Each structure stands twice: as C-alpha cells, then as structure tokens.
Amino acid sequence: MSDNSNKFKQVISHAKEYGFIFQSSEIYDGLSAVYDYGPNGVELKNNIKRFWWDSMVRMNHDIVGLDSSILMHPKTWKASGHVDAFNDPLIDNRDSKYRYRADVLIEDYVAKIESKINKQVDKAKSKFGDSFDEKLFRETNPRIVENQQKIDYALSTMKKCLDDDDLVSFKNLIIELDIKDPISGSKNWTDIKQFNLMFSTSIGANSESSSEIYLRPETAQGIFVNFLNVQKSSRKKIPFGIAQIGKAFRNEIIARQFIFRMREFEQMEMQFFVKPGTQKEWYEKWKEKRMQWHKLMGFNEKDYRFHDHDKLAHYADAACDIEFKFPFGFKELEGIHSRTDFDLSQHEKFSGKKLRYFDPESKETYVPYVVETSIGLDRMFLSVLTASLQEENLQNDTKRLVLKIPAFLAPFQAAVLPLVKKDGLEEKSNELYENLRPFLNVTKDEKDAIGRRYRRQDAIGTPVCITIDHDTLMDNSVTFRLRDSMEQYRVDLNSVRDELLKLTNFANFL
Ligand code: GAP
After folding, report:
1. Domain 1-86+198-393: what homologous superfamily?
2. Which residue's CA is the nearest one to ligand 1's atom 12?
3. 399-509, what's its fold?
4. pLDDT tens digits for 319-366?
5. Which atom of ligand 1 approaches the CA of 252 most closely?
6. Which position among 72, 279, 431, 478 has the lowest Cβ density within 10 Å, counted as fewest Cβ atoms?
C-alpha cells in the first residue's frame, strides 16, 4: 500500500477515534457520502467558519453577510441553468457493475501521463542541476512532447464532446484511449448518460397542490436573488460583496473520498459585484487574496497551487481552482470564477424583475458583473486534518500522533490539567478553567498520568496544556507545555489569559 493511501486511512481513522467525523447513520450501516461531525469536529468546523467569516466579512468593509434559505422557488434553478445542465456524464462497466463519471476517467488517464512527464522532468533536473532549463526540456524532449500531445488530444476531444453534447463520440474516446475499469480492468463499457445532480422533493400538503422543488446545489443563487435587497438595505456601492456559509446538496455519483465529495456539504461563498469591464482586474485580485488566505495557516506552501480552467462554463469569462495536495493527489479545494452578468441577467429574465444597479456617480444603470470565490467547508476541513496530522518519533523510542493545527483553528485553545486530583490541585484547576472559559475555548482533563493526557491533547490539536502542580499552590504559577515543540515553562497565574491569547488569537496571525 502506498504512503499516500496509508496517510488517507490514518486521517480517516483518527477523525473517528478522536470524535471529529462519524459516518452518518452508522448503526444502519451508514449512508454513503454523508457524514456527521463529532464533539471535536464541530469545534474545528466552527473555527474554520469563523476564520473564513472574519477574514471575509469582518475584515473587509466592502463585504456583507447573508443567510438565505436552502429551499428556493423552483424557477431559480431553471434560470441558473441547473435544471437543464447540472449533469454528470455517467458510464457503467458491465462486468464490474461499477459506475463512473466519464470525464473523471479521462482526467485520471491524463493524470497518469502527467505523472510520467513529471517523473522524467525530475530525473533530468537532478541529473543536470542548476543548468537545467525545464521549459526547453519540456518543449524538446521527444517522449515528453509525445505524451503532452496525448494529453492535449484527450482533453480537447472531451471538451468538444461535452460542448456538442455528443455522448456517442465521448464513449468512442474512452474506447480509443483504451481506458479500463480501474477496479476490474474490463473495457466492457455501456453508453454514456447524463445524470442531473439535484435532489428534489415536494412542497405543499396534498398531492394536487404540491409542487416539485430542489435542495439547493450551491449557496450562490440565494445571494443573486437577494442582490438588490442586500445592496439597498446595506446602502453598499459597487464594488461590494455578499458572503454566505450554508448547506448545499448534490446527488454525487462517485462518493468514495470521505468528506472530499459529499452529498450534503457546506459551502463558504462570496459573490463580488463589480462594474462591467472591471471584472478581469477583480478576478486577479481575488485569486491573489484567496491564495494569501490559505497561506495564513502556515502549512507547506507547496501543497497549494492554482489550476486555470481551459474549459470554461458557459457563464464564465475566467475561472481557476486553488488545488490542495490531498493524499489522493492535487484536487480542487476552492473555485474562483468570473461569472459575468449571467446569473443576474437570467434572474431578471425569469422573474421579470430588474436586478440593476444605479451608479450615483456616473448616473449609469447596469447589471453588475460578478467575481465569485467558493470553497467547500468540509473539503477545507479535510485539507486541515491532512496537513496537520503528523506522526513523530520521540527520543525514548516512542511515537506520538499530533495534530499541528493552527492555534486559532484548534478545537480547544488550551487544556487545564491538575497534576493529581488531590491536595487542592483539582479545585485550583477548576478555578482557572472557569476563569478562562468566557474568553477562550478550553477543556480540562483529570484522568490518567500527565504524559497520557498530553498525548490525548496532542491528538486533538490543543496548542497549550496548562499543568497545575504543588508549586502552583506556593508560587501562584503554572506550567505551559506547548504542543508542537513540547517545550515547558512557568507562567504566572495572573498572566495565563493574556499569554494564551497571544499564542492562539487569530488577530496575531494576520
Ligand atoms: N457556486 C459555485 C460552485 O458551487 P463548485 O466548483 O461546484 O462551484 C465550489 O463548488 C466548492 O464547493 C468546490 O471547490 C468544493 O470545495 C466544494 N464542493 C463542491 N462539491 C462538493 C461535494 N460534493 N462535497 C464537498 N464539497 C464540494
């Protein structure tokens, strides 16, 4: 088994063992691609939300918040294009009975060739050292050129098939590229069919008066339909943004990557409304700003990269992903899209209501253009867990599993631990615990030897353990034990709160 697949298994089992994530309805054998967040998970998730919300809304004077409903008028989804075009091309393998997204089969084919190219480039790099010209090598090495042509052919042919909605040619491409079922190796494929990803339900008490509605597949449309309500009530001038965190639902076909691809998930989306013609400039600004935001967490910067889209959705004039290196490879974490005036214009058309902005300076009226940033909260959670879970060898031949989560995201900022439960130490700990609670999310733990308690806190990412010992009763000081360095030092009880805030407050990381 590869290191990466081991790492992924380790993340999944750690998430369960330490109360971060459970399979939904587990006692009924689970519901596929739906997950529940346990006591530590919900704290981490709330902190990620707060990190996003504070950076997006609190720290930007030109962005305001919204919390729109999950259920929306069904015409919303006709206008947005989701009823007609929110589809995945599906293909079944007759022998294995497995179902795949046809575009993912092609993407996996491309990823394999890319990995061959990268290996060859790395080899040449180490052979030629500083004098190595990677661009020239990629352009002239015959094997690389040939492999790149294969990639270009596969992607451009797939794009044409999808643009023309030509599913017969799409299947022929899979046959031509000799793509096999990754599980069984069989090439016995069915035809490709389009499958709509929206969940539908009905609204209304009886069958005559009820009508079909959808669970929203993205939060963005709640922002678009409220554009004028928000703009007028908050008296915002363009350019300005509306941010929202909320649930979204998609009937995903391939749902085998833990919380990476879920059927019920949360999005953190921001739509930035700009004057037509300025969208390119804003798109570049948001691309830069979002990447900077990810870097605030202090993880390995090489694990983040941009992927510019060649294949643009019909409503976009530019789009890219911020990809993160998950254990199963670089995959989309966040999307940044320049969505033109498509959504607002469509809602004008379908509702018959104007969604225009009157510019008080230029006296012009126009439908604004939109630059969107959209990140999956659960995907972000998985990236944080993956990047922070580390197994360390200690001096005495033991190991520790530690979650090196940024302190402002950790489920608890500190744990208060009495060395023993007697001699008044427990009472002293409780006093400190109660004093800290209004200001910080702290936990306490009295069971087991102190070393085991440190390990437990390491495993859930608590950045500081505060130990109350017999000296505390004499000199009014406690031991701070830091998660990452395991360094220990004494702190006066009266300074504990300020010290903790210094070490863990989000503002210190900006
Ligand atoms: N409003 C734009 C939009 O929804 P998207 O690329 O379909 O764009 C945005 O989704 C983000 O939502 C993705 O980058 C990803 O992080 C997250 N996301 C999408 N589908 C998901 C799923 N099935 N499970 C978990 N997260 C998902």
Report:
1. Bira Bifunctional Protein; Domain 2 (3.30.930.10)
2. 376
3. Rossmann fold (3.40.50)
4. 999 999 999 899 999 999 999 999 999 999 999 999 999 999 899 999
5. 23
6. 431
